[in-house]
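User: I'm writing a tutorial on reading structure tokens. Could you give me a worked example: one chain, its sequence, then its tokens, then a sentence or two explaining what the tokens reveal?
Assistant: Sure. Here is the example chain.
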Amino acid sequence: MAERPQPPRPGIGVGVVVTSPTHPNCVLLGKRKGPLGAGTYQLPGGHLEFGESLAECAARETLEEAALRLRHVRFASAVNSVCAAARYHYVTVLMKGEAEPGAEPRNREPEKNEGWEWVKWDEFPPADQLFWALRCLREQGYNPFTEELDHLKGYTGSHQLA
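And here are its predicted structure tokens:
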């Protein structure tokens, strides 16, 4: 009997909610380019490298993508985003970090991102304009300006996206 092909395994990503003392109540957002999610808003982030801690990944990705050094990097949330139609399944650990005072982002990956901007958390684009991990984070009720993890109470670990 022939073995069935195994479905691909989910990817593991790290997204970074970057705040700044220079931009109160704002987080750093970029607009995606490329075949998946083009035109949607995203956080800095990327793939977790072998042997890397979550905080190290968050700091590395933010420096690589936005030229910002982070301080006070810590856990914010985790989301499990699935879009079967796009064959997309990622488990994304969200970390929070603060940019150094006075530091401003530079777009170091213009082939992947239109640019970075500080956006007030309470004035975010609508959910359908957010890339999946960020959309799921917002749907959880996460607030980057508190240290509470109440948004995780009752979270079942699944966001099925159309």
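What the tokens reveal: The first strand starts at residue 11 and ends at 19. The chain has a mean pLDDT of 92.
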